[in-house]
Prior knowledge:
The chain is an alpha+beta fold. The chain is about 15% helix and about 35% strand. It has one domain: Jelly Rolls (Sandwich), CATH 2.60.120. The chain has a 6-stranded antiparallel beta sheet with strand order 2-3-4-11-6-9, covered by helices on one side. Helix 1 (about 20-35) packs antiparallel against helix 2 (about 40-55). The protein starts with a strand and ends in an 11-residue tail after the last strand.
Amino acid sequence: MCDLDHRHQPAAFGYLADAPAIRAVVEAAEQALAARASNAERVEMLRPAFEALLASDGWLPEPFASPDETSGMGGGIGQYALYRAEDASLCLFSLVVPPGAATPVHDHLAWGLVGIYRGEQDETVYRRLDDGQDAERAELEVALNQRLARGGCYTLLPPDGDIHYVRTVSEAPSVSIHLLANDTACVWRHKFEPESGRVTAFRSGYSNAGCKEG
């Protein structure tokens, strides 16, 4: 297993960045979580507030839109918590990927929405072909390639769309906003090597907050 939460900062919850647009999308997500609805229906309930967040300017603090050269993810990739529910039911975070850098192929293990706030990304989504019984192996095939610019948004409804990687193709860092129904950076999830089939457990950690231990 690989724990990339290497700086062991104190755990922090609630609003780590605060603005009306952030509060609006978190409140919409909390209402969706409380609704008697499917996860697909919940995503559609919160989509208007999330798309409004992507379209708004001035709410994201610049430190949360900057590369993190000390990141355990490498490549200057920064993952900044904007909001975290203490019960791990919801998180909102920014992911900053410098020009030319790419994330590992990874999963999220939660439903939610991801959208581009700055820059451009190429996304490659994989479909899993095996039954997932072997924790260390996976057979993957490419299901989708797409280029995304500001306002571009995609849905995660595991297993659909949950395994992917992104690469920044703009001259400036790309900043994507993630709204997911777990505490993503503190969840033990999976890193994949599609060519070899190898699967590794990893925890990415946040650049600005620690994970609960135990």
